[in-house]
Amino acid sequence: MTGMRMVTVDSLMRKDPVIIDVGTPVIEAAQLMRVCNVTSLLVACRGRVIGMVTETDIVRNFVGANKVSYFFAVQDIIRSPVLGIDAQRPLSEAAHLMLKHGTFHLGVTRAGTFIGIISARDFLKPALIYSG
Asked: Phi then psi for 52, rounded to 5 degrees?
């Protein structure tokens, strides 16, 4: 395996994650996901990331439960704390963490600060690049 480069999380992650306040209405979070073309948002309280909300969270908690999302803030459905991985860790470790915890998204950190998000969908990027 000489000469093979380890593929790390930062090679596929989405940089500059979208961060919203914990009091943001769920409907606004869903609209922001659509506008920004993302499937997850980091959630902050007083400038500190405390959780994550995903499309799946919104679907399960509102669409699937037949609730109206206008009356709820993301604080009612966030996953906290954010399951994270360092940007320099191998992709295989990210995949293992996702499987182990039953999630499709991980926060990506560098020196303890969130710098991105990686989703299971991001693992498809190399296949698209090399398929021509």
From this structure: -140, 145
pLDDT in tens, 60-93: 888 766 666 667 899 999 999 999 999 999 999 9
Let me know if residue 67 belongs to a domain.
yes
Eight-state DSSP code of residue 80 = S
- 99 touches 4 (CB < 8 A): no
DSSP codes of every residue in 8-67: BGGGTSEES--EEETT-BHHHHHHHHHHHT-SEEEEEETTEEEEEEEHHHHIIIIITTT-
Q: Determine the structural domain holding residue 90 and report its residue range.
A: 9-130
Read off φ and ψ for residue 112, nearest 5 degrees.
80, 0
Residue 42 burial (C-beta neighbours within 10 Å; 0-12, 13-18, 19+): buried
